[in-house]
Amino acid sequence: MRHVPRAPGPAPAPPLGVTVEVLAFGVQADERPLIEEAFSGRHELHCTDVFLGADTAPMAAGYEAVSTSVNARLDARVLQTLAVGGTSMIAQRSTGFNNIDLDVAERLGLTVARVSYYSPYSVAEFAWTLAMAVNRRIVRAGNRTRDFDFRLDGLMGRDLRGRTVGVIGTGKIGEAFTRIAHGFGMRLLGWDIAPNPACEALGMEYATKEELLAESDVVSLHVPLVPATHHLLDAAALRAMKDDAILVNSSRGGLVDTDALVAELRRGRFSGVGLDVYEAEAGLFFLDKSVEGIDDDTLARLVTFPRVVVTSHQAYYTREAVTQIAETTARNVDDYVAGRRGENVLVPAAPTA
């Protein structure tokens, strides 16, 4: 049983050694046993597959802490509802935090933590899965053979060996992606605010964004979504790419101007596009819309292109990565209970000494 809701206002941090009740929003069926195992013996966890938003935030009344997924929208209204209901700690189960109004959280005295690291291989391997799927027309081929159509017309791909890959963002995930590209025998181009020595050791050359887009046969995005990277690939950047390039985005949807991308696809450009994220995915991804349909005309148009593969933000979704995410989330709650400010804390409830 969960606690009876407390009086309005954020609750003080519990004393050392005290456990708290945690309500985890947006928990997927495959994720649930892993997060329950991580919290076992530490805090009392309650899971729901409902996503946190303005309409569902009152469900958290009485819970000291809540855990949220990447597609939760924690704006001022939601944060205010959480604080009034007694929540004082938010543990987000993702690295990105562009969905949280941190200024409002700080003003309300809420502690906010994220998962700053999990298996970079999960995302890097999936990014290459998308690249290979569109390059070798895997989805179209699979659909054909289900109908016993075994023709090869329209399924011709290209060798990757000797071609150029452009890696935008060469942090941990970008580095893992680069290592796979190196194994394919590709020329490596990178763009970032600072070079990664591990990537340079593999033979990566760093270039301007314009040079990278103009020369790359495959472009993959691995940067966070911040104001400076919003629509990093806008209409002009997309036009700068090769007509037969492959574009992969497994980072954040807002990095790409989707309307501009659709316009380029309508002109017949790009050999393939693999998207695991979409800039208006909140309220769509992770949900079953197969019966009611969607009213997002841009996404509906995007998925009609035969050279495009769209998946539902699943690049991180491996047992290893989700286990790390769950364990880190549990440790973040431990740190909150103990009054520690760990490396994952984005907003502390009070200044540290």
Automatic annotation (TrEMBL):
Keyword annotations for this protein, in alphabetical order, are: NAD, Oxidoreductase
| A family per Pfam | 2-Hacid_dh
Q: Which InterPro entries match?
A: D-isomer_2_OHA_DH_cat_dom (IPR006139), D-isomer_DH_CS (IPR029753), D-isomer_DH_CS1 (IPR029752), D-isomer_DH_NAD-bd (IPR006140), D-LDH-like (IPR058205), NAD(P)-bd_dom_sf (IPR036291)
Is NAD found in the keyword set? yes
Q: Which residues form the D-isomer specific 2-hydroxyacid dehydrogenase NAD-binding domain?
A: 129-315
Identify the domain of life: Bacteria
Keyword flag Oxidoreductase = yes
Q: Where would I find the D-isomer specific 2-hydroxyacid dehydrogenase catalytic domain in this sequence?
A: 25-346
What family is reported? Belongs to the D-isomer specific 2-hydroxyacid dehydrogenase family.
Q: What is the name listed in the Swiss-Prot or TrEMBL entry for this protein?
A: 2-hydroxyacid dehydrogenase
Q: Origin organism of this chain?
A: Streptomyces sanyensis
